[in-house]
Amino acid sequence: MEQLLVIGERVVIFSVLVSALYALVALGFTMIFGVGRVLNLAHGAFLMVGAYTAWFAQRAGVDLYLAAALAVLVCTLLAVALYQGLIRHVQHSVIITLIATLACALLLEEIIKIFFTTTPQILQPFISGSIVLHQTTIISNRVLAFVASWVAIVLFWLFVHRTRWGKVILATAQDQEGAALVGINVRHVYTVTWALSGALAGLAGVFFASWVNLSPFMWRDPLIISFAIVVVGGLGSLKGSIIAAYLIGFLEVLMTYSPSIKFCADYRCFEFLGASWVGVPSLIMLVLILFLKPSGLFGRAHE
Amino acid sequence: MEALRVERLRKSFGGLMAVKDLSFSVEQGEILGLIGPNGAGKSTVFNLIMGTFRPDRGRIFFKNREITGWPTYKIVNEGVARVFQIARYFPHKTVYENVEISAIPNEIFRRADQTELKTMTVCRRTGLCGDEGCGEGSCLCRVQWPGMLPQGGLRRLEIARAIGTDPELLLLDEPFAGLSPHEVDEMAHLISDLRREGQTIVLVDHNMRGVMGLVDRVVVLCFGEKLAEGTPEEIMRDPKVQEAYLAGGGV
């Protein structure tokens, strides 16, 4: 019983922490879709580029805070370059856009492989050490990632709802022809949303590295997470995204701590549930939502 | 001075010639009626002026500056605004925010409170948010959603959104269509008020009688071609026009 309480406590604390990061991971992806109707399959690759930029700068002796700023800058430029150089010309076709962004993600994976090999790398944390909360030990860097994620989300919300540019972006999201008719340069707005999405991805990448090792394949998980969050939360809804991020984060952490059932036969074992099933619940939820409520839990909201 | 000049404009969709070598001009401060039976190409002309469609041939000048082929947003910022027959508002913005968004883009270098002042002025001007709708520090249009407005209110919202962009030329697409007789009167009032303030307007309608009292000059379109041009009195007497209208289903 005592043991169960401790596990419960860990599940709650860890899911609260990781879910904020998940929300940040999905934020840029949601925005690009909400405003420009583009599913950017290169979003996870942007995170990867952000993480590797920070890691490379750190290895070269740059202070990590500066390295993180560099990661944000590189991802912003990369996103704008991808939009201006490619997406802008194919945006009208959903299929071509999907293929183009996926190709871009794979290309970035190859480039990382060539320059940094497939060996997993570790990004040194901003702050080392850990804190103990009741009976749970938490790595300090993950607390920082949690705080930074929420700060970024709140700042993003304020930007969209309180500034002139935010209002223009929202208008474009609702009706791009209508936006042009009141004098808004829609292409300009798209460029800004891509830049913002890239910046958020760069930031998310730096903090994502506090949970996982760097590798050329690390873009897949964040992309799947973004997809699941956006579909479950409702396309283009910020509130829905955050709630979905917490739902998915909770299920994943719960799965990590759930006991597994082992079936063994002929010296080969198969585990049912447990830590190796971490990725499964969010995918099942994604499929279920697509079946039951394709518009997501919060529909296409006006946020 | 000429506000708008259209020269030998041509546009076809597949085999259908929607606009055929159309030329006309609009003087600053006047209301020009663009009249013609359904399918005469009136809306296509608006789409060509606003840059929604690119003409196959011909040129469009706004204040003696060629705007042919410009993107819509640039034409709007140059000073042309269009009012649609079917209101196209931002569904997830309040009435106030719908007007505000059109007042924003031209005001990059002004402070926010001036945007607010301008938005409220436009809202009052078009009767969207009358003084009676405003209570202590708040107005009805700030909490109202466009979906709650009646037909006449939606048309006012369309006009408010257009005026918010500070247009020198206003294109009105069938401003009376679908309105109750009472709303038609109010709309006619609003348009003549705008005219008195010096607003240049091109007004499209298929109903000739309804707009004759409002317009200074009329261009009659038929199958994409200019059939006649003149003052309302001249047009009403023109046998060619009468014939076209009788053939096309009445005045």
How are the SSEs ordered, and which strands pair?
The complex is a heterodimer of chains A (303) and B (251).
Chain A: H1 2-36, H2 43-59, H3 64-90, H4 94-116, E1 130-133, E2 136-139, H5 140-162, H6 164-174, H7 176-181, H8 186-208, H9 220-233, H10 238-257, E3 261-265, E4 268-272, H11 280-292
Helix pairs in contact in A: 1-5, 1-8, 1-9, 1-10, 2-3, 2-4, 2-8, 2-9, 3-4, 3-8, 5-6, 5-8, 9-10, 9-11, 10-11
Chain B: E1 2-13, E2 16-27, E3 31-35, H1 42-49, E4 57-62, E5 65-66, H2 72-78, E6 80-83, H3 95-103, H4 112-125, H5 140-143, H6 151-163, E7 169-173, H7 181-196, E8 200-205, H8 208-212, E9 217-222, E10 225-230, H9 232-237, H10 239-247
What does this molecule look like?
The complex is a heterodimer of chains A (303) and B (251). With 303 residues, chain A is mostly helical. Chain A has one domain (2-215). Helices cover 70% and strands 6% of the residues of chain A. Chain A is built from 11 helices and 4 strands; from the N terminus they run H-H-H-H-E-E-H-H-H-H-H-H-E-E-H. Chain A has helices spanning 2-36, 43-59, 64-90, 94-116, 140-162, 164-174, 176-181, 186-208, 220-233, 238-257, 280-292; strands at 130-133, 136-139, 261-265, 268-272. Chain A has a two-stranded antiparallel ribbon. The termini of chain A are far apart. The mean pLDDT of chain A is 90. Chain B has 251 residues and is of the alpha/beta class. Chain B folds into 2 domains: 1-79 and 167-251, Rossmann fold, CATH 3.40.50; 90-166, no CATH class. Helix content of chain B is 36%, strand content 25%. Chain B has helices at residues 42-49, 72-78, 95-103, 112-125, 140-143, 151-163, 181-196, 208-212, 232-237, 239-247, and strands at residues 2-13, 16-27, 31-35, 57-62, 65-66, 80-83, 169-173, 200-205, 217-222, 225-230. In chain B, the strands form 2 sheets. Chain B has a 6-stranded mixed beta sheet, sandwiched between helices. In chain B, strands 2-1-4-5 form a 4-stranded antiparallel beta sheet, covered by helices on one side. In chain B, helix 3 (95-103) crosses helix 4 (112-125) and helix 3 (95-103) runs parallel beside helix 6. Chain B starts with a strand and ends with a helix. The interface between A and B is medium-sized, with 19 and 27 residues.
